[in-house]
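Action item from last week, closing it out:
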Amino acid sequence: MIAIMLETLINQLHAIPGGKERSLAAGAFLFHQGDEVESLFLVLAGEIRLVRHQPDGGSITLQRATAGGILAEASLYSRCYHCHAFAQKAAHVYVLPRQAVFARLQADSTFARNWMAYLAREVQQARFRSELLSLKTVAARLDAWLNWQGGGLPPKGEWKTLAEQLAVSPEALYREMARRKWTP
């Protein structure tokens, strides 16, 4: 049901006038922290990351958007972007003018309801991620993730991504999986 609702929203976003496609090479920036917000983005292919750099030189990945993902939706309501967006892998995005999105929200109540439902799901995901990261052990984080996802592991080729989502090293995740008799 959620996938169908997201697909409907994506189709509605594609129907907004004024959109254009843009390609980015791996490592290229889509926008920088502090840039004025002018657009909303749909990721058509590749991977875009939202990253905020910390004063100590570290960085935090705020979002990892792949094909079908909506990028910088929270920034739509801000004057400027609160982070950098760059192509982790070569990417192709659909760029929607901010004002055109707002006009569609005002003119189309069905679109506005779909947009609100999408934002509510994003808040739920953010709260889950916050809760997940508060857990102290790999086992507790894996249990919480499995519960949230309905109990199934992703395919073997996506286990490193799972480790990243759990904010643990791949090796720590593999040790926990081996302890449970799941082998990488």
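Closing note: The chain has two domains: 2-131, 136-179.
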